[in-house]
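Fold it.
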Amino acid sequence: MYFLFIQCLCLWLQFCRCLEYLCRYGSPAGMNIRDNSYRTPLVAAAQAKIPGHVQRLLMAKADLGISDSQGRTALHYAVLYNSLPCAQAIVETSPNDINLIDTAGQSALHLVCIHGSQQLLQYLLSISSCHLNLQDKTGNTALHYAAMENRLDLVKMLLSKGASVVLKNKGNITPLQCSLEMGFDECSKILQTF
């Protein structure tokens, strides 16, 4: 057990030294180098939930718009791995990137509602450039996903900010109909009040 801890600590320190070297001496192109899954150092830092590394890479002008093989950016990963500090660092650097979509047409807002972070949703909704009713490739909005997942707090938050209850997905289904089909009575009642 102790050996594993030491091994992890050594890998961590090596990663930190590599990052510092990359930021200090690397070219802008090197800052955006990709691995086999097309992830950049910025995406890796967001995925690892290390806001200090995210901020350091952003200060070194890492490109926020570069996506991986699934079209996901560093913000997508910050949301997927439930890192509010990483998401804040990214959005504060480039607020308009909040609506970038992956290959499924999903923005950070969609992913928050699928995975259920109330803090992240509250933060994203506080950004004026956030498109509340953005539809993904299946036509689902963030409200559709919150309703499908029976995330009552998220549904209430989205509705309080003006999310549309009448938008239909490609299956011609509204968020209320999603909730009814899933048998989520309380969620359905909330949606019916709007």
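Confidence is low (pLDDT under 50) at residues 1-13.
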